[in-house]
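Review form for a predicted model. The reviewer records the input and the model, then writes brief findings.
Reviewer: anonymous (R2)
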Amino acid sequence: MTDDSVDGGYEAMWTLVKMVAQNAGYTLVLQYILTDFEKEAMHAGRKVFPTPSMKGCLFHYAQKIWHQLQWHYLGALYGTDMPFYLQVYIITAMAFLSNEVWY
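Model under review:
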């Protein structure tokens, strides 16, 4: 992971990964790339590796949801209101649904 959250830093990281593999005599044939939910990291990954699908880490997805709850002052409600807790839980679980459910 890079501390530089601008597109250029992530693009440099993905380019370096590709270059190191090529210098070692490998051709990367990727089916998917797993990242956290940084838009910049996913966008840069697509620029350097256009074919694989991008996947996000469930831990980071749940962490983003929790941070949004805290940002909107809903952390206490999450801890005390069971129906609200279950709705947030369902949102997190939706990550396991296939794309076919959405179309």
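Findings: The mean pLDDT is 87.
Further findings: The longest strand covers residues 32-35.
Recommendation: see findings above.
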